[in-house]
Amino acid sequence: MKHHYWEAPIVIYLFLGGLGGGIFFLSALFDLIITPGAGPLFFAPVFFALAALALGCFFLVFELGQPPVFWRVFTTKTAIIKWGAVLLSVAMIFGFVWWASYLYVLGWEWTFGLAAALEGIRPIMLGIAGIAGFGIMVYTGVMLSTLKAHAFWATPALPVLFTVSALSTACAAIALSLGGAVDVNVIGAVVAELIHEIVHVVDIVLVVAEITVLLIMVLSFYGAGNVTAQAVAKRWVRGKTAPLFWGGMIFGGLVLPLLLYILAAGSAGSEILAPILVLCGGLLLRYLCVYSDERAPIPGEERFYERLPKKDAAFLTAWTKGKNLY
Amino acid sequence: MTRYVMVVDQSRCIGCQSCTVACRTWNDLPLDIIYNPVVSEGTKGTFPDVYRTWTPTQCMHCANPECVPCCPTGASQQDDDGTVWVDYEKCMGCKVCVNACPYGMRDVSHMVPRFDQYVRKCTFCRSRRAQDPAAEPYCVATCHQRARIFGDIDDPESEVSKLINTNYTERIFTELGTDPQIYYIPEMGGGAR
């Protein structure tokens, strides 16, 4: 292995993409099927979904070697990353139109006409954004799992894990922002409470599912993975990443919020702290996974690259700063 | 139909890295990019029965490359003669292909301006062959040990065809289904893998 090819911006992009996609999916599910007419309550969550996707796209473009030509991502039919970009665009465009149709909740008079004009197409807009959101959640995991050069990524468990985590973080974000920026009446407050209750229970189920999938995946690799995947799993389970995995991911990001959800229901710990921990756990999961990009080396390859000067070596620094850039 | 492959005779390679230097020279590579490192696991065995095997590596120009279909811009492509290459004019530096390559034979340079990075890789000296169709890749032309042999595997009279048909050869990571087109004639004591 020479170095990590994908760095922190991709970690943030995968997290925010899953989060935004999950919020769109759940918002569509609630507004169109579970609690029809609850649209205004999702004004703030969808705003955060749009912000998350926009910020995620920014980080994705920032990670490119040539950001000004990011539009080239749309120029082929087969690449999975192209389909991710299409899903992101669709979710953001249709989600924005839906969100703009509810701008009137802020009391801005100039938006009243906009709301009236878009009222009829709201279900279609949110429906399409929700479907695209679901696609984004799945895509973030599939993108990594199709890269079979990396043994720890190339498992069907990874898309499942990322999808469950995306849904879980979306539940957390909705729990934190539902009804934000909106003056709700009594009925609205009851519906908001109902949605809070549903999201609360669903997130408990999702956190349990995430713990299960994560442990099955990591411990399977630990016990029976090929040499490369097993090395990564060992690092996670009892190596230098173990504190982050057991302390940060499993305990801080999953078990502790689960306990708060169950044992402290109704308190600030359950309503605020637990969702924040779930969000942090989601980010940590992407971090741990993206930086587990070990590839099976060609015999002797590691020995070769270990002997090369590192990028901060005096020799290379002097060369770079000198007349001969290359 | 022409299908270019390379045969690497490990019993001839002495690990001089001439091919590595030649490649850097022809392709004018930044310092942190090496298309064809010659690697070794070091000395093996117990004195006096010791040996060392060198493995000249490079892009495997796979018949079923992982790096081509994953490219979202179509920059990563394969010629009819099997050469896998990157069109720098189309590449946006997303590094999906870099992550897709099981051999680690693609990379972007970190010694060029941050927002002018594109993926680089061995092209079997495509530009050199465009100038002179009879020319060999520079690493092959430079190898004084004749450890690297380049040619058309579809031509039964070519040297590579004869070598592959008359020697035991190995290829790297064939289990991934990439069908790599660099054939190694193993040195005693161990092959490419």
Q: Any idea what the CATH superfamily of chain A is called?
A: Formate dehydrogenase/DMSO reductase domain
Specify the structural class of chain B.
alpha+beta
Query: How are the strands of the biggest sheet of chain B laid out side by side?
Result: 8-1-9
Please report which band the strand proportion of chain B falls in: under 5%, 5-15%, 15-25%, 25-35%, 35-45% or over 45%: 15-25%
Write structural notes for this entry.
- The complex is a heterodimer of chains A (326) and B (193).
- Chain A is mainly alpha-helical and 326 residues long.
- Chain A has one domain: Formate dehydrogenase/DMSO reductase domain (Formate dehydrogenase/DMSO reductase fold, Up-down Bundle), CATH 1.20.1630.10.
- Chain A contains twelve helices and no strands.
- In chain A, helix 1 crosses helix 10 and helix 3 packs antiparallel against helix 5.
- Chain A starts with 7 loop residues before the first helix and ends in a 5-residue tail after the last helix.
- Chain B has 193 residues and is an alpha+beta fold.
- Chain B has a domain of 125 residues: Alpha-Beta Plaits.
- In chain B, the strands form four sheets. A three-stranded mixed beta sheet of chain B has the order 8-1-9, covered by helices on one side. In chain B, strands 2-3 form a two-stranded antiparallel sheet.
- Chain B is globular, with a radius of gyration of 17 Å.
- The relative contact order of chain B is 0.26.
- The model of chain B has no long low-confidence stretch (mean pLDDT 92).
- At the A-B interface, helix 3, helix 11 and helix 12 of A face strand 2, helix 2 and strand 6 of B.
